[in-house]
Amino acid sequence: MTTISDVARAAGVSPATVSRVFNGGRVTPERAERVRKVAAELGFAPNRVARSLRTQRASVIGLIIPDIENPFFTSLARGVEDAAQQTNLSVVLCNSDEDVAKEQRYLAIAAAEQMAGVIVAAASRNRTDLSALSGRGMPVVAVDRRPRGASVDAVMVDNQHGGEEATAHLLSRGYRRIACIAGPEGASTSEERLAGYRAVMRDHLRETGGKLPGEWVRHGDFRVEGGRAAMAELLALPEPPDAVFVVNNLMTVGALEALREADREPPGVGVVSFGDVPWASLVRPSLSTVQLPAYDLGWTAAGLLQDRIAGVVKPLQTVVLRTSLQIRDSTAGPLAGAAG
Fold it and tell me: Per residue in 278-298, pLDDT tens?
């Protein structure tokens, strides 16, 4: 197969000149005619597919999320895609599996492919490194989770407020030994939700002269099995909790499974999940949840990225969206559970 170097050698010009001839660059008419004549004699055809792919890269954005099986991130991705379609941007979805090394590979690919920009929900507050993109001037928006020290636009949730609201609700329903199943240490969303739980519990216990027991907090992995293991540990305590605040929806599934296996189910043990799920109102008892604006997070992040891609010059922005508490039967109160 004839290459661009073959044409350059036969025409007595550089490969760069041949490239300019076939890509609309500035070349003298005489030299352009010579290159085209040699190319025709050698049967050389420019790689229009490759050129087309280079053009298409400017219309592609990357979306890197930690867990595509989590309904929260599925809804977030839909928000990104719907907003991107408004300006004819295509979305490449990457699933990091909460793995920083895997996340870094995707970031490197985005840089190598010269994507128009990237939206990323960081796998780790402390270890996610966006320098592969920001160092190239590529637009980046952090969504849901922002790495520490990253100078990028961000769309966040007021996680601490959600944690405070969930914990205060459990106290208002008569629960007192309220535990928390948090996510991995270092995950910003988990730390913020846990901070909300701790703030409310410490205020409550200070009024009664008590202290928040360290064993009331367990860390999971944001997955079903992590929630099941954490709940089993809590139930094995000499004085197990009478309620639990779980900081994400998949671990809530595991916690509910552990409660069922121990024959201790809501509302006898109150349960609030951070993050709604489609079946929350269908299970019995129905599940109280802190509802996240997942779709709005994705839509807003895509809007910020589109502005940067279009060259809009403005200070870095951080948009914070609020949660809402959806009260259902899983937090009806310990007395309601005894009556049931």
Answer: 888 888 999 999 999 999 999
Look at residue 52 and tell me if it is in a domain: no
Contact 255, 275 (CB under 8 A): no
What residues contact 238, with CB distance under 8 A and at least 6 apart?
none
Mean pLDDT, rounded, for 221-247: 96
| Domain carrying residue 308 | 58-158+294-323
Q: What are the CA-CA distances from residue 41 to residues 16, 35, 44, 207, 328 (Å)? A: 19, 10, 8, 91, 77
Number of independent structural domains in the chain: 3
Least confident stretch, 19-33, 54-68, 164-178, 228-242: 19-33
Rounded to two decimals, the pTM is 0.75
Beta-carbon count within 10 A of 327 CB: 14
Q: How far apart are CA 159 and CA 294, in angstroms?
A: 13
Cα radius of gyration (the chain): 27
Measure the CA dihedral 78/84/88/93, to 10°: -60
φ/ψ (deg, to 5) at 90: -100, 150
